[in-house]
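Q: what sequence does this backbone want?
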């Protein structure tokens, strides 16, 4: 390697032999099972997380609406619709691109988890074109209590945005979720698929007709922020919704929309990101698929940006780069590392498969990178999460022999109703929070926040950034695990170490 490629404080990628093998099939099954632990509403008879019971059965009552169901997004008992919609989109994308690698049972359970999300989201747009529901529950009172969902006595206020007030980010993500899910269900339930697509169209119409962020509405902002404010703006969700509608319908009008709005919406700006708030990385990757598959020249700039994005994962390439911990974990600055790791790894794997299908390599200046190099890097992230890391700990609860036994999750840390049938009131629950004992209920399959940027993990219920699970970490992890369960990538490097060039 020529020194000119590196700055004096550049980072050198060193590949060392693998140390741990993993049961991706077991991890996949558990990653889907996790969603049963996050269910809200009336639980079905085949509920496998039996320490959970029915909860929040009056949601939506204050607005004369039925908002029973859906998912609690994390370790509290609020239903934030913005990250729930992103979770739903990613569960659908996992089924679309990686469902063929799942066993029939895992694919069925993935679709069940997906439908639990879409059935609820359909309720949130049931009063369009005039109203869209954005949240159920009041975060501040909820966070002052440590209650299992079955005992909640905090306010379950539902919040909505009324036309013509803006909600482009929320509605754009919901449109993406419906469109993606319509593709996932098309082969298995055509009638439901059509319902989803029809709702994608009307929800996108609201998003595009009433432009602006949903958190620009004062009454909603007070409820949502600082938890799920749309910090990144709303333009990425409009492109994201249009991209998924193009994939679901094949209509050229969405190509025109993507072309006409690419620059003004900033598809090249802050494009090395992907998660519940910033969709630009996902937009560029999914639109690039149209270029790979159909050679649509008008949207080639999206592929160019996606390629720049992919090159940033490799430190020997020119331009901006991703960041890695000393132990090789891909991260972005923020409170919860693994939400970024998993979402970014999903895009890495998706793009690698698109390259392979079109018999292409990744072009990074003078460097030509094979698709398998992208897959190895994505697999490295999966292995790190499952236990091949400096702490020698699985960050998936219930996987392997060593995983955190105290997580920031009200239901997992509180005795179940079968053990303690009497309600545990708000202040009483803090005894469970402070208990030095392991969680009485194992939230099997939950991927928690993970270590810090130095690979250190302290753990404990008080350390929410490290030990709180979220649905939007698990949803893209489903697709990653499905692929590597069925495709054992030739792996001559399972541990990444980054050292300063001398």
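A:
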């Amino acid at each position: 390697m020529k020194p000119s490629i590196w700055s004096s404080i550049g980072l050198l990628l060193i590949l060392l032999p693998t140390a741990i093998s993993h049961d991706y099939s077991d991890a996949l099954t558990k990653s889907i099972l996790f969603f049963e632990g996050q269910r809200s509403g009336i639980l079905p008879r085949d509920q496998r997380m039996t320490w959970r019971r029915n909860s929040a059965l009056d949601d939506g009552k204050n607005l004369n609406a039925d908002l029973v169901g859906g998912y609690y997004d994390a370790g509290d008992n609020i239903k934030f619709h913005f990250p729930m919609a992103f979770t739903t989109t990613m569960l659908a994308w996992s089924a679309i691109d990686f469902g063929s690698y799942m066993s029939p049972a895992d694919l069925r359970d993935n679709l069940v988890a997906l439908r639990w999300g879409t059935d609820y989201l359909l309720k949130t747009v049931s009063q369009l074109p005039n109203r869209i529901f954005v949240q159920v529950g009041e975060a501040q009172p909820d966070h002052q209590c440590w209650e299992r969902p079955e005992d909640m006595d905090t306010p379950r206020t539902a919040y909505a945005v009324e036309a013509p007030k803006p909600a482009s980010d929320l509605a754009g993500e919901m449109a993406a979720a419906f469109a993606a899910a319509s593709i996932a269900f098309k082969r298995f339930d055509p009638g439901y698929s059509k319902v989803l697509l029809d709702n994608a169209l009307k929800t996108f119409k609201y998003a595009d007709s009433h432009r602006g962020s949903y958190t620009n509405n004062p009454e909603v902002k007070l409820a949502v922020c600082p938890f799920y404010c749309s910090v990144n703006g709303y333009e990425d969700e409009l492109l994201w919704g249009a991209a998924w509608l193009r994939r679901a319908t094949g209509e050229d009008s969405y190509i025109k929309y993507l072309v006409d709005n690419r620059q003004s919406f900033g598809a090249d700006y802050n494009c090395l990101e992907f998660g519940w708030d910033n969709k630009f990385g996902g937009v560029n990757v999914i639109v690039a698929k149209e270029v790979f598959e159909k050679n649509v020249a008008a949207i080639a700039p999206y592929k160019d940006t996606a390629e720049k994005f992919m090159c940033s994962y490799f430190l020997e390439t020119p331009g901006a780069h991703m960041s890695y911990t000393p132990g090789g974990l891909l991260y972005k600055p923020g409170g919860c590392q693994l939400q970024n790791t998993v979402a970014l790894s999903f895009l890495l794997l998706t793009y690698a498969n698109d390259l392979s299908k079109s018999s292409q390599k990744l072009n990074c200046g003078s460097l030509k990178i094979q698709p398998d190099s992208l897959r190895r890097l994505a697999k490295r992230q999966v292995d790190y999460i499952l236990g091949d890391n400096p702490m020698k700990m699985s960050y998936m609860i219930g996987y392997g022999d060593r995983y955190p036994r105290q997580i920031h999750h009200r239901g997992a840390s509180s005795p179940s109703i079968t053990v303690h049938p009497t309600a545990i009131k708000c202040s009483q629950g803090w005894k469970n929070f402070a208990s030095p004992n392991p969680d009485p209920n194992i939230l099997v399959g939950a991927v928690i926040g993970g270590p810090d940027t130095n690979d250190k993990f302290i753990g404990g219920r008080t350390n929410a950034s490290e030990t709180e699970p979220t649905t939007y970490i698990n949803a893209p992890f489903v697709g990653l695990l499905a692929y590597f369960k069925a495709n054992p990538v030739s792996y001559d490097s399972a541990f990444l170490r980054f050292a300063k060039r001398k």
